[in-house]
Design brief:
By secondary structure, the chain is an all-alpha fold. A two-stranded antiparallel ribbon has the order 1-2. α1 packs antiparallel against α9, α7 packs across α9 and α10 packs across α11.
Length: 290
């Protein structure tokens, strides 16, 4: 019994690891405090689920989920191009609420609050993933490729420009760099990986509804990124293991199930407050969250 449960936890860690690293790309490395990341996660999940249910092969629905989420990330950056700091954060949070509202009310497409059941496991070029262990192997491969690519990005010349934009956007613009294009590219890439993590989530759980991509999920993602440290991929990886395992351990507390869910949100909030007060850089972060 313990082995299947461990596989389940490792799968959740893998999914949220991709999601957290993609958020750290925009928040930590580019300095874009995007609170709409959970919406991109949801767009990827719904895109992949709806396409797959309507007969589109998983490989195409998986890639299209990433591309569509990336496109919406680009649109978010484009629409909020003149906003910075807290104003950008509020605008991106508004975007998250708009997407949630659309998922809830476009019942002819998304089935609204009823959600989408019966999402099948992936089938990749004839290889049918029928059990969780096979899914874990596939997910581990996607995680490795995702982290490898994002690490290449942040250590490239483009990544150095993102750091410069985060630290002094005005100075970078004086040097002749187009910071708007940097933001567009960053949000597209960040959204792409958020979208594929949403696709992986949908095909693993087998059921999604709008509440899966609401504010509580955003708190979880932010907790992981801030606990691990801003602009630290190693920190995001470490914090994903810590937070997911901690949330799962709460299942074993002698408390009613109705209390466990809200209790998790309280724990996440307490962790965020403690980190922001006493260790603003997180566990392995290199900069402070301003």
């Amino acid at each position: 019994m313990i082995f299947p449960y461990l596989i389940h936890i490792l799968i959740l860690i893998g999914i949220y690891l991709i999601l957290a690293v993609s958020l750290n790309l925009s928040l930590g490395y580019a300095g874009l405090l995007s609170l709409g990341h959970v919406a991109l996660f949801g767009i990827g999940a719904y895109t992949s689920a709806l396409l797959n249910i309507n007969g589109v092969p998983f490989v195409f629905s998986f890639l299209l989920a990433g591309l569509l989420a990336g496109f919406f990330g680009f649109l978010l950056a484009f629409a909020t191009g003149k906003l910075k700091g807290d104003y950008y954060a509020l605008a991106s949070l508004g975007f998250a609420f708009v997407v949630y509202s659309l998922l809830l009310n476009l019942t002819e497409i998304t089935r609204g609050p009823l959600g989408i059941p019966g999402i099948s496991k992936p089938q990749i070029f004839g290889w049918a993933i029928k059990d969780n262990f096979s899914y874990l192997i596939f997910l581990a491969l996607v995680c490795f490729v995702s982290i490898f690519l994002i690490n290449k990005i942040v250590n490239s010349g483009f990544g150095k420009l993102l750091g410069a934009m985060r630290d002094d956007e005005t100075g970078l613009r004086i040097l002749g760099k187009d910071t708007k294009k940097l933001k567009y590219k960053t949000m597209f890439v960040s959204g792409f990986f958020a979208g594929i993590s949403g696709s992986l989530f949908a095909h693993y759980i087998g059921f999604i509804d709008p509440n899966t991509f609401y504010i509580s999920e955003l708190v979880l993602i932010l907790t992981i990124v801030i606990l691990g440290g801003i602009a630290s991929l190693k920190g995001s990886i470490t914090a994903t293991f810590v937070v997911i395992v901690l949330s799962e351990l709460m299942r074993f507390l002698p408390l009613p199930s109705a209390i466990i869910g809200p209790g998790r949100q309280i724990v996440y909030a307490i962790v965020l407050i403690i980190i922001l007060m006493f260790r603003p850089r997180g566990l392995l972060g290199r900069i402070d969250l301003e």
